[in-house]
Fold this sequence. Notes:
By secondary structure, this protein is mainly β. It has strands at 4-8, 10-12, 18-24, 32-39, 46-52, 57-59, 67-71, 76-81, 90-98, 102-104, 108-112. The chain contains no helices and 11 strands. Strands 2, 4, 5, 6, 9, 10 and 11 form a 7-stranded mixed sheet that branches. A 4-stranded antiparallel sheet has the order 1-3-8-7, with no helix packed on it. It starts with a strand and ends with a strand.
Amino acid sequence: QVTFVQSGGGxxxxxxxxxxxxxxxxxxxxxxxMGWYRQxxxxxxxxxxxxxxxxxxxxxxxxxxxxxxSRDNSLSVNLLMxxxxxxxxxxxxxxxxxxxxxYWGQGTQVTVSS
Length: 114
């Protein structure tokens, strides 16, 4: 079983920046990706960004050029969010995806408002 400790998030004004961090308790057997998803009220959970163990990244179109995903090590993943918009307001979830299943963090609220 993989668990996570998420940190960061909070309230920021439009145009501001926030950094989210996530540390996994263990590394699963086999290959895996880590990433961030978000879910706004009344909407489905959606991929924000992901990164493989080889450092390959993937971003949703709505964050390209604004958000940067990175890994400190095999267990930790970060998301630097720049030029935040009010429609970035959501609960952000850390995710680990293996070949067989997904593991989820507890979620962190990000609110972009003036």
